[in-house]
């Protein structure tokens, strides 16, 4: 805390004074202790045979030996005089954390010149004559010019302070550091190179973080085209880091700069796109810009160094180390395999990247949206036919998935049931798809309202697709044709990410979907992501995806809602559905509705999880029948606190009144009135689906009006909360949000609107105080959709 609160002008000398007592030689006993110190997490990182780089980002978790290169723009402040202390501190923390996990960390750092420049400028100002300062006046002193400082002198003055700062920071994490200064000759001379290798190996063996830099105080200027055959010369810290990484057989080189990664054209230009994965041979597709504000390298030098390291068996990631939003976790994110910066890989996948898939889907989706509604309906009907015609292929693939899931033994029974397909389920899917095909006739281009703004100036609000949808679903392959049909009907492009448990079934269903789309040349409008993409990485494609729809467990939905930065998420995190049995309930209706709500499909999000009983029903024949029915259906009851207080021998008490069991279990609680039931649901429910069973219409209407859940039912099972049962054909999910779509989301929920204004040379000035026109704002009859107009024309 003292260190980082110092004035920048006083920093170098103060830093030296502050940490001087800490710079001491370890005793023999301390050396021995440190030499054998092993982190508890050390065994989690296994040493691998060096020789080939990692093929996928996910494999970076296996990286044992890591070189972190800190560019000048990362280490220095914006004024290029002094270090960015906060940024440097967060980087040190990450390196120390990885070191303590049992990894071997090395740092190649810039910053000595900037640190020295700050120190020398301070000394020059202090050495100026006090008389000159007094005669010059305050303002003139402020603008006083300083001589240009020679870089080697700055490096000489800054090296000790830079190293002292690193040592002070790493000491806070009980991590020891060692400084290593190198020049080009240290790599070209075999003896010196062996000595360097031996030194670094010994430091790593003793769990010490080597901090390496070129000895800028004596290094000569780089010579152009001085690379030897198969060897990269040390021109800057990029080439130093690459040479060092290969020499030390490092698994990973992380090069931090002031840009997000490698772009296909200079960052900031209109068409610049960040490259997620760069492969050797892609250099011709890159247009390089100018180098950063500091340092002697540039992106071209970084790419050259990265490719050289990659050829030597070291994986490389180039990322931004200056962005305050990510600096605190950029290194650890890379090591965890997250999609950060540009990853260099020698193995090019056979299929397109997820970014390319998204772009293909968007382009084909625009064509899909422009089709006539009859053409979109024809695609959906053809897909429905394929589900029954090719059912043997689908069921064979599904059996493979089922066999693998059962043999693995880690999937719960509820998920196994979701994974399973049958001829009856396929027939039901086909019926639902044909309902969607009918709905597609009046979807895209429907006119919602017309207004005559002024004479010869008319405004229309029409329905249009949202854009690109990303639907992430777990072991539920029936979701794929449903969501595909809804996307086709609404003219949306679709990106699908299914659970690996249903990979074989999903592949066959997607092939059938693309076969149906090929009828009208829009095969690419629906894409199945089959690459090793993490869900969190997909949620970061905010410039390519317009809406995310998760279909799965409450944990999946919560994870996606947290991971989605800038992309709306449609869905619900939990399905805590209540059934309230009123004092005036019919016995027969209670037994039927409670049984169906809980036992028809316990894993569904619309299954009953809490049964609320009016107090007057306790110790009545109706209560006994409810308990007997639940016992017969093998439903485990968890007693709420009030219900438990009425019983001498109660079932297990509920750990929480806000639990989604997803199985043959439910919570039972007692309330005194309908109003208390509503209050309970508002407090513990998830705004999904809630039911009242009563013969009193007044009580029922109060319940339906007061409760603000997405679905509220009177004398009907909670299992009716479903797009197919509502007549929507299918649903992409059930939303508990309070804007856009709510409840089962079908075709309407996948549309948005745009405004179309038709004028005749009108300007806003025409309606100003001095203009000659007045607003009318007259509502006009809604005419047929734009698609219908195109047909009639």
What attributes does this structure have?
NADP, 39% helix, alpha/beta, disordered N terminus, 24 strands, 793 residues, globular, ATP binding, 27 helices, single chain
Strand content: 15-25%
Q: Please state the CA-atom Rg, rounded to the nearest Å.
A: 34 Å
Spans where pLDDT lies below 50 across 5 or more residues = 1-44, 224-232, 292-297, 788-793
Oligomer: single chain
Q: Please report the distance between the alpha carbons of the first and last residues.
A: 75 Å
The helix count comes to 27
Overall strand count: 24
Structural class: alpha/beta
Give the averaged pLDDT, no decimals.
Answer: 84
Shape: globular
Helix content: 25-40%
Question: What composes the largest sheet?
Answer: 8 strands, mixed
The strand line-up of the biggest sheet is 3-4-2-1-5-7-8-6
Topology:
Elements: H1 11-19, H2 28-35, E1 65-70, H3 72-75, H4 85-100, E2 104-109, H5 112-127, H6 130-142, H7 151-171, E3 177-182, H8 185-188, H9 190-205, E4 209-214, H10 237-247, E5 252-257, E6 277-278, H11 299-311, E7 315-320, H12 330-335, E8 342-344, H13 354-370, H14 373-389, H15 391-408, H16 413-419, H17 423-439, E9 447-454, E10 457-465, E11 468-473, H18 479-490, E12 493-498, H19 503-517, E13 526-528, H20 535-538, E14 547-551, H21 554-563, E15 577-581, H22 587-599, E16 608-614, H23 621-632, E17 636-639, H24 641-645, E18 665-671, H25 674-684, E19 689-693, H26 697-706, E20 711-714, E21 733-735, E22 743-745, E23 751-758, E24 778-780, H27 786-792
Parallel strand pairs: 1-2, 1-5, 2-4, 3-4, 5-7, 6-8, 11-12, 11-14, 12-13, 15-16, 15-19, 16-18, 17-18, 19-20
Antiparallel strand pairs: 7-8, 9-10, 9-24, 10-23, 21-22
């Amino acid at each position: 805390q003292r260190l980082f609160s110092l004035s920048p002008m006083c920093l170098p000398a103060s830093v030296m004074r502050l940490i001087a007592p800490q710079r001491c030689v370890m005793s023999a006993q301390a050396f021995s202790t440190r030499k054998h110190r092993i982190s508890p997490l050390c065994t989690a990182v296994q040493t691998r045979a060096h020789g080939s780089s990692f093929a996928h980002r996910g494999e970076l978790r296996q990286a044992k030996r890591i070189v972190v290169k800190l560019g000048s723009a990362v280490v220095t402040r914006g004024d290029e005089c002094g270090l960015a202390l906060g940024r440097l501190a967060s980087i040190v923390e990450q390196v120390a954390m990885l070191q303590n996990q049992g990894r071997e960390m090395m740092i190649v750092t810039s910053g000595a010149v900037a640190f020295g420049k700050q120190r020398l400028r301070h000394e020059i100002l202090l050495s100026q004559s006090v008389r000159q300062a007094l005669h010059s006046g305050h303002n003139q002193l402020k603008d006083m010019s300083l001589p240009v400082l020679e870089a080697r002198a700055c490096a000489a003055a800054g090296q000790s302070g830079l190293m002292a700062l690193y040592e002070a920071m790493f000491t806070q994490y009980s991590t020891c550091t060692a400084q290593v200064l190198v020049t080009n000759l240290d790599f070209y001379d075999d003896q010196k190179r062996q000595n360097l290798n031996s030194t670094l190996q010994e430091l790593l063996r003793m769990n010490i973080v080597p901090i390496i830099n070129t000895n800028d105080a004596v290094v000569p200027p780089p010579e152009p085209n001085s690379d030897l055959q198969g060897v990269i010369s040390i021109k800057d810290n990029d080439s130093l880091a690459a040479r060092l990484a290969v020499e030390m057989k490092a698994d990973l080189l992380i090069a931090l700069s002031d840009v997000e990664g490698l772009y296909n054209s200079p960052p900031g230009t209109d068409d610049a796109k960040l490259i997620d994965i760069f492969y050797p041979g892609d250099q011709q597709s890159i247009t390089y810009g100018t180098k950063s504000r500091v340092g002697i390298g540039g992106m071209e030098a970084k790419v050259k160094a990265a490719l050289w390291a990659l050829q030597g068996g070291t994986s490389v990631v180039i990322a931004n180390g200056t962005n305050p939003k990510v600096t605190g976790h950029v290194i650890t994110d890379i090591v965890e395999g997250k999609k950060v910066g540009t990853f260099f890989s020698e193995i090019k996948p056979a299929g397109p990247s997820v970014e390319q898939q998204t772009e293909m889907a968007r382009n084909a989706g625009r064509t899909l949206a422009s089709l006539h509604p009859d053409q979109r309906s024809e695609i959906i009907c053809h897909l429905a036919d394929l589900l029954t015609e090719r059912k043997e292929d689908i069921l064979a693939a599904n059996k493979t998935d089922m066999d693998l899931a059962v043999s693995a033994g880690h999937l719960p029974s509820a998920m196994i049931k979701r994974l399973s397909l049958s001829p009856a389920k396929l027939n039901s899917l086909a019926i639902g798809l044909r309902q969607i095909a009918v709905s597609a006739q009046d979807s895209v281009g429907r006119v919602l309202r017309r207004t005559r703004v002024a004479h010869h100036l008319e405004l229309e609000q029409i329905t249009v697709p949202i854009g690109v949808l990303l639907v992430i679903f777990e072991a539920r392959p029936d979701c794929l044709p449903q969501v595909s049909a809804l996307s086709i009907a609404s003219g949306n492009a679709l990106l699908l990410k299914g659970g690996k448990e249903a990979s074989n079934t999903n592949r066959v269903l997607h092939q059938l979907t693309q076969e149906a789309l090929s009828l009208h040349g829009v095969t690419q409008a629906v894409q199945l992501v089959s690459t090793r993409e993490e869900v969190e990485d997909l949620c970061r494609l905010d410039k390519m995806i317009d809406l995310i729809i998760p279909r799965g467990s409450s944990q999946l939905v919560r994870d996606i809602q947290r991971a989605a930065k800038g992309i709306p998420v449609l869905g619900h995190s939990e399905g805590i559905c209540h059934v309230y049995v009123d004092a005036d309930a019919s016995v027969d209706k209670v037994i039927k509705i409670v049984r169906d709500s809980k036992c028809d499909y316990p894993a569904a999000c619309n299954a009953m999880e809490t049964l609320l009983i009016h107090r007057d029903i306790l110790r009545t024949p109706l209560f006994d029948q409810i308990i007997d029915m639940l016992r017969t259906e093998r439903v485990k009851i968890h007693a709420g606190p009030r219900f438990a207080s009425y019983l001498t021998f109660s079932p297990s008490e509920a750990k929480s009144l806000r639990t989604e069991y997803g199985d043959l279990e439910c919570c039972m609680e007692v309330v005194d009135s309908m109003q208390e039931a509503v209050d309970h649901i508002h407090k513990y429910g998830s705004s999904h689906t809630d039911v009242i069973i009563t013969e009193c219409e007044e009580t029922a209407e109060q319940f339906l009006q007061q409760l603000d859940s997405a679905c509220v039912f009177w004398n009907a099972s909670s299992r009716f909360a479903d797009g197919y049962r509502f007549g929507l054909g299918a649903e992409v999910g059930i939303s508990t949000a309070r804007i856009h779509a709510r409840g089962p989301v079908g075709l309407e929920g996948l549309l948005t609107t745009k405004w179309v204004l038709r004028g005749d040379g009108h300007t806003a000035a025409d309606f100003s105080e001095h203009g000659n026109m007045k607003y009318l704002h007259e509502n006009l009859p809604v005419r047929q959709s734009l698609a219908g107009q195109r047909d009639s024309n």
